[in-house]
Every structure is written in structure tokens, then in C-alpha cells.
Amino acid sequence: MSRRWLEKEGEAWVEDGILTREQLQRILDRYPSGNRAAQTLPILAGVLTGLGILSWVASHWEEISPLIRLTLLITTLIGFYTAGEYQAGRGRRHIGASLTALGVVSFGGSMVLIGQMYHVTAHDARLWILWAIAGLFSLALYRHPFLFFLNFVILTASQLFSTHSYGEFSFVTAALFLLGIGGYAQRQGSSRYTWTATVGGVFQAILWISSSDLSSLWIFPLMLGWYALGDSWASPRWERPIKTVSLGVAFALCLFLSLEPIRGESLPPALIFTGGTALLWALSLIARIRSKRWKDLYEWVLFLPLFYLTQGFPEAVHTSLYLLLLLGFSLAVLLTGYARGSRRRTNGGITLFLIATFTAYLNLTWDFMPKSLFFLLGGLLLFALNHYLQRTKRDRLSQGGEAK
Prior knowledge:
Elements: H1 3-15, H2 21-29, H3 36-59, H4 66-89, H5 93-117, H6 126-142, H7 145-165, H8 171-188, H9 191-211, H10 219-232, H11 236-259, H12 270-291, H13 315-340, H14 343-365, H15 371-397
Helix pairs in contact: 3-5, 4-5, 5-6, 6-7, 6-8, 7-8, 7-9, 8-9, 9-10, 9-11, 10-11, 10-12, 11-13, 13-14, 14-15
């Protein structure tokens, strides 16, 4: 248990009323800050050493005979794993994790090089899946953050490679991500794991939509489903990242629609789309009724399928409607942050409001204003808005608001 973890999780405990701020500070006083350089340097040293060895081998690769190449790959792989186990067994956890991570990287690199040596061509993400299985096995054995994030990168890259190189979504990769990354985050309970797993899970879901024949608008009900899942989750460690990420994606998609309206045949079937959206809203409402949580109901507006209502109207009507939606949502986040004295929500509301304001400015002035003047006035407008909002925030929070 680290002090950094206690600080992050402690804020959530205070916000949920589990602890008072004084009690949290007393707990933190029992865990003095450690030397993070002592944890980071061994990992960095192991990575740089391994990269040096791999770079030397790669530069002389063509000069080595196939048998020696194979022997070298196997020796390197076994060497890294053995050294990692030895260091971990002697209590040098961070050095052991860095060496084990190099073993995982060597495993994936060896498969690629062996395939090139014997002219084996991949037609799916099978190689990446085998690599991910080896990485997840190492994560299960050593339970180190470095191995967690390495596996996150491998599984995310695997799905990207599968969707963009082969045009198909790998459900095996998605299952490994859910069970490996999601399962590990659930067991550990730390917010850095739950946030990472949530971002990766949402990204995998978006890749599924993008690799299929479905319209990108189906991302709206997909994110509403994630939002409903967050409403159903009892733990704030999962609820906050799931709802925040899903709202962030929906906000970004609304921004896109305010700039590029989707018309006619590109729209999904209205009955199926609106029916599915209504069902997911009902599930979110049921979860809120059961938990008796009624705050932030305005967040649902981001998932409204307004693009059906603007069909047949001029493009300016569509753009204006989505800009009003974005500005209204941003102001709601900002005002609720003020009302609760929450610095995190207030800062988020300010950021969203500035983005929505700049988008509105872009829509209104891009076509007729000289570009140099456009950027100059846009920058001055954002500076002025930011100054006003930050001053208002300080005034409001200085009257008794807490930094949450």
C-alpha cells in the first residue's frame, strides 16, 4: 500500500462520507512519502539495458545464421525471465518486474523474427493474442503496475492491428482485455487501474463499432450502456471512471456532429435506435431508483438523438441545436461544481465550456473571417472567458467550498 494510492483513494472516501478530512490526514501521517526514484530507476535501467541488447542484435541480425538466431532468441527470452524471477525472489520487486517485462517483450519480438526467418505470414491477430497470454501470465505471477500497463499496451495494440490491418474485430482480444486487465483492476481496487481499464474497455468497444458496418452514431447508445453500467455499479472506484469516460466520448461525438451533420441514409433505423436508447435510459433510471441517487440527471441529455429531429431543416438549425446542447451541458457541470464546492467538477466544467465556446466560434466565423484574425480573436476570447471563470471559481470556493 503506497502513500500515493492512499491520497487518491482517500479523496474518494472523504467525498463518499466514509472518512473526514482530519481522519484521512491522520492515516496519511502514518505512511511517509517514499523515494519514487528508488522505484523508477531500476525499471528504467532494466529497460535501457534490454533495449541496448536488442538493438545490437537487430543491427547484426542479417549476419547471423538461422540456427544461431534461433538459439539467441531462446537464450535471451529465458535469460530475462530467469533474471526477473531471481531478482523478485531476492525482494528486488521493481528490478524483477522490469526484467520480466523485457522477457515479455522478447517473447513477442521473437515470434515476429521467427516468422520472418521461416516466411510465416499472419492473417489475423493470433500472434498478438499469444503475446498477450504470456504477458497476462507474468502479470498474474508478479502483480506489478509496470506489467499491468505493458499488458494494456499489448492488448490495445492487438485490437488496433486486428481492426486496421485485417478489418475484423478480435473478440478473443476483447475477452482477454476484460478478464485480464478488467479482472486485475477489480481485484486491486486502485483508481489508477480502474481508470485505465475503463478507458481501454471503451476504446475496444469503439473499435468494434468502427470495424463493423454500423454507423458511428451507434456509439451514442453504446456509451449510454456504459453510463447505465456505471449507475449500476456500487463502487465509486468504477462508477466515476465509467460514467466520466462515457460522457467524455458522448461530448466529443456531439462536438463532431456540431461540425459535420449526418444526414439521410447515414442515419441508423430510427425505431431500433430510439427504442434501444429508451431501454438503456430505463436501465439507468432503475439503477438510480434502487440506489436512491438522483443527482446529475442532466447528464442524460448528451445521449439524446437530436439528429433525427433536425432532418429536413437547414444545416444551421442542426448546428445551433448541438451547440446549445454542448453549452448547456458545460454550464450544468460548472454550476453543479460551484454548488458542491468541488474543484474537480468546476475545472471540468470550465474546460468543457471553453471547448464548446470555441466550437461555436469556429462554426460562426470560419467561413468569412480572415484566418489570422480568426485565431487572434479566438485566443483572446478564450483567455477572457478563462480569466472570468477562474476568478468566479476562486470566489465561490473561497466561501466554504472544498477541493474535491
